[in-house]
Design a protein that fits this description.
The protein is an alpha/beta fold. Helix content is 25%, strand content 30%. It has one domain (18-118, 168-326): Nucleoside phosphorylase domain (Rossmann fold, 3-Layer(aba) Sandwich), CATH 3.40.50.1580. It has 8 helices and 19 strands.
Length: 333
């Protein structure tokens, strides 16, 4: 038996069939900020996960905390899509920086997301050839990654190649069934990106905890050195690792021009694509992934609450702008 698209859509709202924007946050404190500003709140717990519905900045929403990791992001996002009528998705949280030109406290809105550590681990740096020719892994049901039509070379350490070659992911949807397809990039929704390019959120240099006494000046130790900026465009990447390797971070920047690295969004994007739900993601930069020196800005970002404050400021600015769009976008009160 094959379910029709209409039947599949109907099965998606097991709990609540009101059209909503789904917001998934990987960071608890930021989810708390968004929930606190949500009107007409109602909460439901599904498989231990608390989903909060209501109206946030003129949009009907459902908010959930995924927790860290690709697996948690995948499970919670699919759970949300099954139980609520989610017309659009937003992921928001904190990430490591990859582009060395960016600073702690900046917020990025990449235009696409990838999973670079979905890999074929070869014995050396030569393209694998298990199916007869260099780079052909199709007999294993796999496909090596290409960017702009060119194969991505393996990751090499200074002393030796690792043999790690990026792969594309197989994804099945109602649109590409029964063959499915391989994808390396998951583009964000064009309409949502258009609105994101128009917003001008106020990003703070000092977190809310930087002021110990009302009316006093902020504690400079609780402020980052550079004024945070909003960075729109480029590629974000996600993997099942906490990246603390400067060589791999440089590799990602050189080969993919990646801007940020974290552990949730690309999996979230895969689920969004598989379910044909438009998405976008906002990520506040906490550090330069794999940095080897101590950075006082990192401590200030987390201890002052700046990380969640700036990330939520972008999410709220986007929702304000989205609510002013034509009603065809849905999820309005």
């Amino acid at each position: 038996m094959v379910c029709s698209r209409a039947e599949a859509a109907q099965a998606r709202c097991l709990t609540d069939c009101t059209p909503r924007i789904g917001i998934v946050s990987a960071f608890g404190q930021e989810a708390d900020i968004l929930v606190a500003q949500t009107a007409r709140k109602r909460s439901v717990v599904i498989n231990g996960n608390r989903f909060t519905t209501g109206v946030l900045r003129g949009n009907r929403v459902v908010i959930v905390l995924s927790g860290v990791s690709m697996i948690n992001s995948t499970m919670v996002t699919q759970l949300m899509l099954d139980h609520f009528r989610v017309e659009r998705l937003i992921m928001s949280g904190i990430a490591g920086g990859v582009n060395p030109a960016h600073h702690v406290g900046d917020v990025t809105i990449p235009e696409r997301w990838s999973m670079p550590m979905e890999v074929y681990w070869n014995h050396d740096g030569s393209p694998p050839a298990p199916c007869g020719s260099a780079g052909d892994v199709s007999c294993l049901g796999l496909k090596l990654a290409s960017v702009d039509g060119k194969p991505v070379p393996s990751f090499n350490l200074p002393e030796a190649p690792t043999g790690l070659f990026m792969r594309e992911n197989f994804v099945m949807t109602s649109a590409n069934s029964p063959k499915g397809e391989f994808r390396f990039d998951y583009p964000v929704d064009e309409a949502m990106m258009g609105v994101a390019r128009s917003i001008q959120p106020v990003l703070q240099r000092c977190g809310p905890k930087a002021v110990q006494t009302p009316g006093a000046e902020p504690d400079p130790k609780q402020c980052v050195a550079a004024q945070p900026k909003l960075i729109v465009g480029g590629r974000g990447v996600s993997a099942t690792v906490f990246l603390a390797n400067p060589h791999y971070r440089r590799y990602l920047f050189e080969q993919l021009q990646a801007q940020t690295f974290e552990m949730e969004t690309a999996a979230f994007a895969h689920v969004a694509y598989a379910n044909q739900v438009p998405y976008i993601a906002f990520r506040s930069l906490s550090d330069l992934a794999g940095a080897e020196e101590f950075n006082a800005d990192v401590g200030a970002l987390f201890s002052s609450g700046l990380a969640e404050a700036n990330a939520s400021a972008v999410t709220l600015a986007f929702l304000d702008a989205w609510a002013r769009q034509p009603r065809k976008h849905g999820a309005r009160p």
